[in-house]
């Protein structure tokens, strides 16, 4: 039967007594704790899916088909022949007699290294990283929520790991979503980036106290928290993940305390360069020598943690949706970036000029915006307009929204953690195409930055 087109919309004729009957009791402050507890139980239930017997996330296996299609560019027949000729190499495991072979990512990395050393020199078995070039830090940021910031950072980290790079992920968002994706366990703020920032301030304070003593002034005491931080290094807060070549500095709610503590430190020591804290500590502790890429997930706000992440970055990626409001919000975000960093530069350079010292300035190797959750049928015209205004700043690749994204999200997994056997194989192949293309666009940026640095170094040496 056809629906009556003259029927009233559902917000007419609501009975107040019926509405009252559906209403629960008023919520007091304690009610927030009950809701939070319910969310904690639900989160634990969701996060437990895909965990091993010890309660930790485990990474799935990779089939011969998947390895030869996505990870090591060889024909399946040649791949099998190489394994047969080299019994010392990982041989994989079969779930059934004579069935397909499946390999751990650790085994895939070993196989890639073998092909890189013994295989055709015309193929790029190993990822490009010029000798002598430093690890690159990549911040993913936008102060508008829901634009795919964390998922973009996570999938790029996973893509790079599958490509053979060694990756560190730094979660600066106290919501800890990135930490959950990688199965991190963070008890309190002392297992986050907080002690690195605290130690950076503490070391500055020690230098200042020596200057005070030299002048005959009383030193500022280091409180218990700062004293504890002085004994910690970045390696104390780095944890391994279920990905063999991805490590994590995690986050949890107490990390937000840094947003209150940092301005207090800054007021006590105006000369402390708070924006250098994260970079200086990672460099001083030798952490950057252990990785090719560091992905920094920032909070959806331009606070002190975000400033640290952005100041540390060599490459800045800004995800956004193809909508007027998100385009407008992203423009305001860049305006705030300009105001914030220009203000820091102005303040520092006034003193530098007065003392005859070189002036400082922030610089990023590359800045790109990326359209996420793209629907070409409805957003093509608007995205083209955005491209016209932003030019090269907007990546020409649009990250489509696919059914694979939704299903992986329900399982608290990244796209590359999804087993293609849960889908039709071709459905899986189509679903991951948009993320492979996103990584390809990023990798072109990364390789261009590394190559520029390599050529600059060669020119300087001549």
UniProtKB/TrEMBL annotation:
AAA domain boundaries: 136-325
Residue ranges crossing the lipid bilayer per the database entry: none
Sorted UniProt keywords: Hydrolase
Pfam (any one): AAA_31
GO molecular function per UniProt: hydrolase activity
EC number in record: 3.6.-.-
Leader sequence residues: none
SUPFAM superfamilies with a match to the protein in the record: P-loop containing nucleoside triphosphate hydrolases
Name of this protein: Sporulation initiation inhibitor protein Soj
Organism, scientific name: Falsiruegeria mediterranea M17
Phylogenetic placement of the source organism: Bacteria, Pseudomonadati, Pseudomonadota, Alphaproteobacteria, Rhodobacterales
Gene that produces this protein: soj_2
